[in-house]
Every structure is written in C-alpha cells, then in structure tokens.
Amino acid sequence: MTALASTEDAWKEALEKGFSVQIVKEGVGELIQAGDHVSLHYEGKLKTTGEIFDCSKWPGNKPINFHVGSTPRPEVIKGLDLGLLKLKLGDEAKLYIKSEHAYGDRGHPPRQFEPYGPGIPPSSDVVFGVTVLSLNGVKDPNAPPAGVSAEAQKKIEDSFLEGLSINPSSGSSSKSKAKKGGKSAKKKKGAKKPQQEANQEIAVEEAK
User: Which residues is 95 bridged to in the sheet?
Assistant: First the structure.
C-alpha cells in the first residue's frame, strides 16, 4: 500500500485553509504513519449547526477500519487521513475539517436507513470526534472493558473505593462494621444490595 504523497505539503495546504486538530485525551506510543491500519470510533458533525450526520456508536454502526493515506484511491475523506497523522493509539481528538478536505462541493445525501442522519450540504465544514481504538492490530491498553463506557467504569471504581474507605473517627474500614463482638452482623430485611451487585447495575445502565 502506497503512503500519502507529499504529506508535509498536504499538511501545509490544509493548515492554510483552516484545518486543525484538538487533542482531547492523550494516548500512548508513536504517531500514526501513512500506511498504518487503524480502527476508530467516530462522530461526524456539521460545523455550522452541530448536527450529527453519522456516528459509529449509533445502533447498527460499528468502528471504522482502514489504512491511513492509501493511494491512489483513499479509503476515507482527506481530512481524516491528514488528522490521523498527528494522533497516537488511544488518542481522543476533534478534527476541524474544511469542506475541500471533507465532502467538497457535492456534499453527501442523508442516510437512507435508521438511525437517519441529516445530509451534508455542499461546501460544508465538518468536525469529526475520533478515538483511536487500535493501531496495526494492537488495541489501546487503557481502553475500558468492552460494553462498559469510560464514565461507567469510573463510577464502578469510585463506588468500589468508597466501599473500602477508612472511617476517620474510628480508624476502621466500612467493611469492619459488618462485624460486632466477633459475630457477623445479621442482614436486615430490606437492607441495601451488596456493593458488587450495585456496581454491576451501574455498568449495565451506563452501557445501554
């Protein structure tokens, strides 16, 4: 597979026309190179209205997989190819892409299947939010478990740590209160669910 020709020239031209990359969350490793194979979560928006026209997390969609900078026929719009050359495995970023590096003066028709997204008018600037899930078959080591969002994972961790927290007044952990006088405390009817079960419910709700 041939790499992007004259990458530096292409970048210079894109920057002059207002193309930019904003890193939201830092990943790991080396920058992506032309010819690398990537897997991305993505969300495409119209810059002028903020309307989402496509998203890999919509029902029926999935992450996109492609070779960066493939020629003579690119696999994605030029703005994605260029933007990824500034990203690493695990990066979350926003790519602000001018129309000439997106869908040009032809635009793109609306989706013909559910969930229906708006069409992309001719000469529209777009914003792509992307997360680099894998690079040449190597997955992001810091990604949350499959089916659990990052927000849900954080809640699970916080809830678990809270359950193990030390009571400053007694110097004992919350778990130690479950025993009194060497005997296990009896469960009261209507008592709260065990912490682990509550955590699982959080994960399920957030992942829906």
Answer: 21, 128
State the pLDDT at residue 1.
Answer: 38
- Give the β-pairing of 64-67 and 179-180: unpaired
- Indicate the average pLDDT of the chain: 76
Amino acid at 21: V
CA–CA separation, 43 vs 94, rounded Å?
9
Q: Which residue bears the tokens 């000439």? A: 100
Q: Collapsing DSSP states into helix, strand and coil, what is residue 99?
A: helix
Task: Report how many helices (DSSP H) and strands (DSSP E) the chain contains, helices first.
Answer: 4, 9
Instruction: State the pLDDT at residue 43.
Output: 96
* CA distance between the termini of the chain: 39
Rounded Cα gap, residues 25 and 88, in angstroms? 10
Q: Phi then psi for 7, rounded to 5 degrees?
A: -60, -45
Instruction: Please compute Rg for the chain using Cα positions.
Output: 24
From the number of C-beta atoms within 10 Å of its C-beta (0-12, 13-18, 19+), residue 84 rates as buried
CB 120 within 8 A of CB 54: no
To the nearest 10°, report the CA torsion of 1, 129, 31, 35: 0
Percent of the chain whose predicted confidence (pLDDT) is above 90: 46
Give pLDDT, residue 57: 92
**Model pLDDT for residues 110-163, shown as the tens digit of each residue:** 887 777 788 999 999 999 999 999 999 999 988 876 555 556 656 655 665 566
